[in-house]
Amino acid sequence: MKLLLLLLLASPLMSLSQENIVVSATRLFPKQDKIVQFEKALAAHAKKYHTGDWAWSVYSIESGPDAGGYQLNEGPLNWAKIDDREDLGAAHTNDFMSTVAIYLTDRYASYYSEFRADLSTVDVTKLADNVQLNHVFPKPGYGPEIEELIKTIKPAWEAGQQSVAVYEASSSGAPQFIIATRYPQGLKERDKGFRATFKERLTKVSGEEGFKAYLETIKRTTDHTWSELLSRRADLGTK
What we know:
Layout (H helix, E strand, L loop, with lengths): L1 H15 L5 E9 L4 H15 L6 E6 L8 E8 L1 H5 L5 H11 L4 E12 L14 E9 L4 H17 L3 E8 L6 E6 L15 H24 E11 L7
Antiparallel strand pairs: 1-3, 1-4, 2-3, 2-8, 4-6, 5-7, 5-8, 6-7
């Protein structure tokens, strides 16, 4: 009886202890001649069905292979909350299919990732209107080395007062780290001279040998990388 009572008392605490680190991202690609209609429908659907825990932050993808698409983020949440999510119901599905999906191409992508506070310099909830995503794909078996590499360059980000959020893909295709460099002051942060270069900062922190080791580790452990710029569309989302 005492054990049962302890378990009952502990259950709410176990639920509360779940970290809100899970972000789901969905990418939609509207027909180019239907963007105005798509954006209007997407904003209306989000306001009707995606608020509270399931609010959307929406980004337009400005460059890279997915340019022209839109990324819809939900979270951060935890897996327990996702587990308990109720069916959104026929009304939600019918609304999306009849008002939003009619303007989409067949191209589609969706993935989960977990926020890595130990690798980041900014809180997961602190968004910016402009962000660069670097997608880093380790060679098979080299994930831990990439993780350690990010830890070694984090002080260089901090020295430049950069807002960098790092995510690790979860059961969503090839293993990858998504390094989101947020620009709270705008894209002018990318200008040469705005801050010391990454090489200068890392060399100051780790020395010339440390910078060389960084490059050698990338060559040895990384399968491939690619990057893109996204712009936050607060007019389309609900947060």
